Structure formats: structure tokens, C-alpha cells
Amino acid sequence: MLNIREYDFKNKKVIIRVDFNVPIKNGTITDTSRIDKSLETINFVLSKGGKIILLSHLGRVKTEEDKQKNTLLPVFEYLKTIYKDKIAFIKLSNDEDILLLENTRWEDLEGKKESSNNVDLSKYWAAMGDVFINDAFGTSHRAHASNVGIAKILPSMFGFLVEKEIEFLSKLNKIESRPYTIVMGGAKVSDKIKLIENLLKKADYILIGGAMANTFLKAKGYDIRESMYEIDYIDYAATLIKEYNKKIILPVDVICASNIDSEEIIQCDIENIDEGLSIFDIGYKTVNLFEEYINRSSIIFMNGPMGVFEKEQFSKGTKDILKSISNSQSISVIGGGDSAAAAKKFGLESKFSHVSTGGGASLEMLEGSDMPGIDVILNEKQ
């Protein structure tokens, strides 16, 4: 495997797979974080005299309408504010240092060539460059033409963003410091079965909030009234509680309301939830309980919010837990997705040791699943 710090990029054409899958509304990017986190790699290659071809996906492309909706033109406009006349879109017009190609998933419209890792498409893209850098951790759990396909053809290496992801997430898979605590939330147990099973074997404690806690509470026999839970996973949750009774920590109180839009909230002990109410956040006693475990932990991994944090009246649990983790002396990692969005919303993102850009990729790495976009480079003989 090549090392980005040691490679001579001078006069080389460098294909960089980035993750510019950013939220866009009415043609305007609403959060540039994913782009900004790839600038370190882009700027480094430029500083070493390389010419860059950028590849990224954006959304899903199944129809012609999807192509027009998911164009990287807004991304180009943003990058142009940074690189001025050094960057071009789709094709070079003069002697630009950076070329941004159109959404790689446009190639999925006919035959899913990108997402099926089509050999001919891989060769086409690879022919544009001399060397390949994977700096898109968020797609590294997929074997696509723009990552695995190109990496099989060209000499390849990781960008700085992917290096950091591997470094921090590998620490969580090879725990030495103790206690190791998981804070897990979100909506569904079913979405995180492999993750839960893998982490329960490694962690000392798993603190469960969000709607997924409702399934565990129901499994323990609590009457959660109108709250959302997964009936098909009650037995599964009950089995985990029995097997890992000392590890699984559940809410002792919750914030309830008659519906998600209600401004009137009620703090309820889990033994005493009134009829007609639903759970939308963890309660104040639960925050204090979770903080006891957080404060004694050496490593903390958080994935999923503690409640419906998008609604102000149900955001306190998530905000308080994020604050507690960020103020602790532990190595603290957020596993992307809604947790990362919440950390950014509350201005706490910079206070964590690492906030993953991966979402699904970070979860699959922690599940112990294959990571084709990483493995193809790690196993490369050069």
C-alpha cells in the first residue's frame, strides 16, 4: 500500500474518490462539512504538484429526473469559491489543476455500471489518472467502480480523511482502555442487530435511548402506552437483557407527550406512563444515570440520538448526553448519521475526538463486516 505522505505527486494525474454526497435544497448546499473534510487531501496533492480528478456520487439515480436533481453543479460552484479558476467541471477548458466529474451514479441509469463495479467503467475512469486515492470513507463499505474498480487497476492509497476514520474506528475494534461505553439510540433495533451483537461482546456498558429503547422497555414488561416499538424484536431484546443484564442500561424515566407536535411535555417514570402518551426523549433522571457511566469511561462510542432532537421540546436528552461525553476525559467517537447532525446542531462537533463521516460505513466497520473500498487498498501489493 502506498503512503500519501511519501508519494511523489509531481506532474502526476491523481484520481481522488471523495464523498461529496451533501444535502442540497433549491440548488444550494445546506451543509458543506463532507466537502470541507476532504480539502486537506486535495490541498496536499496540489501542494506536491499533482493534477486532480475528483469523483463523487450524489444521491441515487434511477431516472432521467434523478440525473438533473442530483447533479454536482452546486458542489462545483462551492469549490469554485475556494479554488477560483483552478477548478473545472466535467471537462477541462484551460490548464486547471482540478477537474470535478459529474455524479458517478449517473452511470447507474443504464445497467447500474457504477454500483455493480462494472469493469469497463472502472477502466475508463482509471485511464484518466496515474494514481488513485480513496478519501471517501462513506462509500468504502460498497464495491463500486469508482472505488474498488479503480483501485484494482491503479497504484492506490488512502487520503487523510479515510486514514483518520480507520485509526479511530480501529481503536474501537481493538479496545485496550477500560471502561468502554456505547451510547446507542435511534429508531430501530432491527437496523443495528449486527452492531449491537458485536459491541456487546466488547463493551463494558451499552446505554440505550431513543425509540429503540422502547423495544427493550417493552421486553422488560413496562407499559410504554402509545410509544413506537418493534413487536417482532421483543423476544430478541428480552434475550439480550437476560444475557447482558449488567451491561445493558435502560432509561429510568422519559419525556412524553400526546403526539410529536405537542408543546406540552410530561416527565414520566417508566413504571408510570399515563394512557394516551408516547415517549419522545429520555428523562432527567436517565441523563444523570447515563452520565455516571460516561464519567467513568475511557472510551465512548455514540451512535443515534436519545430522542426526537429535531424538535426543541424533545432535544434536551440528546444535547445533555452529547455535552457530557464531550466534556469527559475519554476518547470519544460519534458514528456519523443523526448523532453527527445533532453534535453539529448543538455546536459540540469539535469537542469530540472523532466524528465519523461514514454513517453506514462506520457501523459496518464496527460490525466487523467487509469494507471493500478499504480492503482492496490494504491488500494491494506494490
Written overview of the protein:
- By secondary structure, the chain is α/β, with parallel strands linked by helices.
- The protein contains 15 helices and 17 strands.
- It has two domains: 13-158, Phosphoglycerate kinase, N-terminal domain (Rossmann fold, 3-Layer(aba) Sandwich), CATH 3.40.50.1260; 166-367, Rossmann fold (3-Layer(aba) Sandwich).
- The protein has a six-stranded parallel β-sheet, sandwiched between helices. Strands 11-10-9-15-16-17 form a six-stranded parallel β-sheet, sandwiched between helices. It has a three-stranded antiparallel β-sheet with strand order 13-12-14.
Key phrases:
382 residues, alpha/beta, Rossmann fold, 6-stranded parallel β-sheet, 15 helices, 17 strands
Report how far the terminal alpha carbons are from each other.
6 Å
The shape, in one word, is elongated
Strand content: 15-25%
Report the CATH C-level class of the largest domain.
Answer: Alpha Beta
The CATH architecture classification of the largest domain is 3-Layer(aba) Sandwich
List the helices and strands and how they pair.
Blueprint: E1 13-17, E2 24-25, E3 28-29, H1 33-36, H2 39-47, E4 51-55, H3 64-69, H4 73-83, E5 87-89, E6 98-100, H5 119-126, E7 131-134, H6 145-151, E8 156-158, H7 160-173, E9 180-184, H8 193-202, E10 205-208, H9 210-219, H10 234-243, E11 248-249, E12 253-257, E13 266-269, E14 278-282, H11 284-295, E15 299-303, H12 316-327, E16 331-334, H13 337-345, E17 354-355, H14 360-367, H15 372-378
Parallel strand pairs: 1-4, 1-7, 4-6, 5-6, 7-8, 9-10, 9-15, 10-11, 15-16, 16-17
Antiparallel strand pairs: 2-3, 12-13, 12-14
Helix pairs in contact: 5-6, 8-14, 9-10, 11-12
